[in-house]
Amino acid sequence: MDIEADRVAMPPARAADTVGGTSVYRHRLPVRLMHWINVVCMTILLGSGLNIFNAHPTLYWGHDSVTGTPWLSIRGENTPAGPVGKTRLGSTDFDTTGVLGVSKVNGDMTSRGFPSWATIPGAQWLAMARNWHLFFAWLFVVNGVLYVLYTVFSKHLVRDLIPTREELRNIGHSIVDHIKFKHPTGAAATRYNVLQSLAYLIVIFVLLPLIVFAGMALSPRLDTVFTGWVDLLGGRQSARSLHFLAAAGLLLFVFIHVFQVIVAGVWNEMRSMITGWYKVPADRPAVEEVRP
Amino acid sequence: MTKTYTLMRARQRDRRHLLRAAFAAAGAAALTGCDKLSNNEAFVDTLKSAQRLSLAAANVVAPKGAMAQEFGQADVAPVFRSNGTLSPMDADYVALRNAAFAGYKLQVGGLVEKPAEYTLDALKAMPSRTQITRHDCVEGWSCIGKWTGVQLGAILDMVQPKPEAKFVLFRCYDSMDGPSLDERDSRYYESIDLSEARHAQTILAYDLNDKALPVSNGAPLRCRVERQLGYKQAKYIRSIELVSDFSKIRGGKGGYWEDEGYEWYGGI
Questions:
Q1: Is the Cβ pair A55, B53 closer than 8 Å?
Q2: What DSSP string runs through A87-149?
Q3: Which DSSP helix (H) or strand (E) runs through A37?
Q4: What total number of domains does chain A contain?
Q5: Out of A65, A186, B66, B207, which residue is the most buried by the measure of CB atoms under 10 Å away?
Q6: Is residue A170 domain-shared with residue A265, that is, in the same domain?
Q7: B62 touching chain A per CB within 8 A
Q8: Under a CB-based contact definition with an 8 Å cutoff, are residues B197 and B168 in contact?
């Protein structure tokens, strides 16, 4: 949930000199601060968002939910064998009892979209979930705007985030390295690799604006800023779907991000995002070490 | 070599388990913390302050007179979804309904120069506005319907609000906790500010989809406040009162759902 691991840009000569085993100051304070604010915001926005979703656990394409086309629906059903949770994706039903549709609340199987452990607050409480969501949405947007301004004015965007033409040409190597879980060492570890850059750029300039605008489209008042602008997203129910899908995309990013942090060395990565200092991994010996 | 490898794996597995347990514990603690904070009044007030910020921001980016989107006849849903009260059981309402609302009178009073009463026929004889708009429920669903009614602004012009009047309060027939003869305070009520009340699309609707408003949608008269969520659209309107503040009325939050914790400003 980082939007970001900001590396201190180093002049090429110094970067090339960086050898494994030394420590570099990789993330500057504003980026570390904004990163952790983001962690808090996104956790609360996701939890409260799922609680809000539960108030009407169906998503549609179109303007309204009567004539719109439902594509995702989570519901609970009472059967002779007991309550069953069902999730319909497109026209296919999945039995999701225990997690989606029907899950345990204080020990009792209860009909609800997402389970209690995933929502803020844990109880089905739309008014309170909205309070949480709409407060942290402000913090999230302010933090995000400050971040984008920072990346632009500190030249972090141009220097570190946008891949060079050469990096783009070598994208094949990067993909192979990722599949082999081969992590860069030495000087290469102080730069974003190309897949990482692209993932960050998609998150920052596609998913985040989409989730914000689709969220704003859900507000009947903000719909009037330019009357009819919600049609650009396909209508309000489509906007609700896009808001949800963008959140799912961000969650996928977070899973991959956290996974990478763990694989790359959780203590070193965490230290670098807390104190800024990162220990550059030693250059790989000629013979591949055994990697599980 | 194999032994070292196994040891390494075991250590990594332990570390992974430890991490996973730590994350799970931190997550559970955070969620419990959120639940505790949800019951802390000062904290919830802080959370709610963001919605007042949202209203202020909306007033900056969306002009006060900005219009809600209107749709075409083809967009109208075949049946308009009903929510909340479907058919009030209150005796006074039942009597009116049984007489096809012939005896219905809308009372408009409070902080006005000229209190007035309007029969349904009198309202229908006034200039009307018809609008096809999208109704957005706080729960997340939407429905498009065609509404015809009198602009609330026109009524206000006739009754002339006093300078100290700030809000238009709608008192409704339906008791949310079921009818009770001795205690009437669970009847639905709502309030909007004067600027919202005078907006061109704020109407007292008596027709839905070219037919008399059905009971399930608020017959004989309901409010349409097109730039706010569904709970602001009072159904079964009994009377309208202009007030300078609503802190002494019922729960003091300006509406039935507001007293239950929903925000007074329903535009977000």
A1: no
A2: EEETTEEEE-TTTSEEEEETTEEEEESS-GGGSSSSS--HHHHHHHHHHHHHHHHHHHHHHHH
A3: helix A29-54
A4: 2
A5: A65
A6: yes
A7: yes
A8: yes
Query: Averaged over B186-192, what is the pLDDT?
Result: 95
Summarised one tens digit per residue, pLDDT across range A220-244 is 999 999 989 999 999 999 999 999 9
Q: Which residues of B touch A55 (CB under 8 A)?
A: 138-140
- A34/A72 same-domain check: no
A168 and A256 co-located in one domain: yes
pLDDT in the model for residue A8 = 42
Q: What is the pLDDT of residues A258-289, one digit of tens each?
A: 998 888 888 888 888 988 888 888 765 544 44
Co-location of A136 and A208 in the same domain: yes
The predicted complex's ipTM stands at 0.89
- pTM, 2 dp: 0.88
pLDDT in tens, B21-57: 877 788 778 778 888 899 888 999 999 988 889 889 9
From chain A, pick out residues whose CB is under 8 angstroms from the CB of B1: 290
Domain boundaries, chain B: 2-55, 68-259
Asked if residue B153 has pLDDT above 80, the reply is yes
What is the domain range of residue A96?
Answer: 68-113
Chain B: nearest CA to A236, how far in angstroms? Answer: 8
State how far residue A121 is from chain B, nearest Cα, in angstroms. 5
Same domain, A225 and A272: yes
Question: Looking at the domain B68-259, which fold is it?
Answer: Sulfite Oxidase; Chain A, domain 2 (3.90.420)
**In this structure, is the dihedral angle defined by the CA atoms of residues A174, A179, A180 and A184, taken in order, positive or negative?**
positive
List CB contacts (< 8 A) between A63 and chain B: 71, 75, 134, 142, 144
Task: Please name the helix (run of DSSP H) or strand (run of DSSP E) that holds residue B49, with its range, or none.
Answer: helix B41-61
